[in-house]
Amino acid sequence: MKDILGKALLDYQNGNYSEDIITSTNISDEDILPLAFLFRNYEDMPKLEQKALELVKGSILDVGCGAGSHSLHLQEKDFKVKSIDVSEGAIEVCRSRGIKNTAVSNVLDESETFDTILLLMNGTGIFQTIGKVSLYLKHLKSLLNKNGQILIDSSDILYMYQDDDGGIWQDTNANYYGELDYYLSYKGEQEAPMKWLYLDYTTLETAAIANGLQCELIEEGEHFDYLAKLSIKD
Q: How many Å apart are CA 230 and CA 173, to the nearest integer?
């Protein structure tokens, strides 16, 4: 991995900002991901993220923390937060921003337990494929303290397969429609494509129940996105 995200975050943090990240998927054209958005404060966050940060309790694990904006807000509110990301550059940025407990880590390698686990900015993305959802949910469940919760957001991207007449066109032989190949490029350098999963709420709920978790729809956004809370069944 070239850690393009980490390089871009470090450039922005160190005052070397000159351009943004370019993203694309196997079903969508190139789009711009403004670096400033990744350093946003609470007031500039989407409402689903704000809602998630309002619902946190106890000790917190921020998974895929990026530049650490969620963690920083919670730390300022005196929460005990551990921030993890697979990007070394992202974690370096988190440390330089003053986040106290942060590590380069894949959540599957975590063994501590927490009261709240945050997976935001399409948190289901780290599951990669529909076939790995149970693997991740089982492990996340093992990281929860009694009465703990997982706050996770995603989007139902079925609308991206809609034609001009309102019909849905899908290859019935293809994988789940939310499984995408995700591309990042920055300053002429391109990362190898990674698998990224957008999970509709019904599928998330079904998978949660199958893995001994309760699933609650907390709030829906304005564009097919949602925030859910997972907790261990009594």
A: 31
